[in-house]
Amino acid sequence: MNDISDLSSAIVIKSDQINAEDFLGGLTMDIVITGVEFKKGAQQPLSIHSNGRQPYKPCLTMIKALMEIWGKDGRLWIGRTLTLYRRTDVDFGKQK
């Protein structure tokens, strides 16, 4: 039988990246890009690194937006600043 006396491990978020939970309560985060890593074929193919933080792994739509703004050469993204935040009114499929 499973021990259900402490369910806190059920809500542990992925600690290898910046998550939406990092922005609860309207917090924002400004990051200066120090590196960009591309893993072709991965579910989250792009990791954007900044000093002292877990990487930001943008969704495909955000990658397209960043490429539209800054171009497809990730080397040119280094030194640029991103402001990350959480929006609660965004739909993901049929979910809010």
Task: Please summarize what this structure is.
This protein is an alpha+beta fold and 96 residues long. Helices cover 11% and strands 22% of the residues.
Q: Roughly how many Å apart are the termini?
A: 34 Å
- Strand order in space, largest sheet: 2-1-3
The H-and-E topology, N to C, reads as: EEHE
Q: Tell me, rounded to a whole number, the average pLDDT.
A: 87
What fraction strand? 15-25%
Low-confidence stretches: none
> Structural class of the secondary elements?
alpha+beta
Largest sheet: 3 strands, antiparallel
Total strands: 3
- Provide the gyration radius in Å: 16 Å
Count of runs of 4 or more consecutive helical residues:
1
Helix content: 10-25%
Shape, per Cα inertia axes: globular
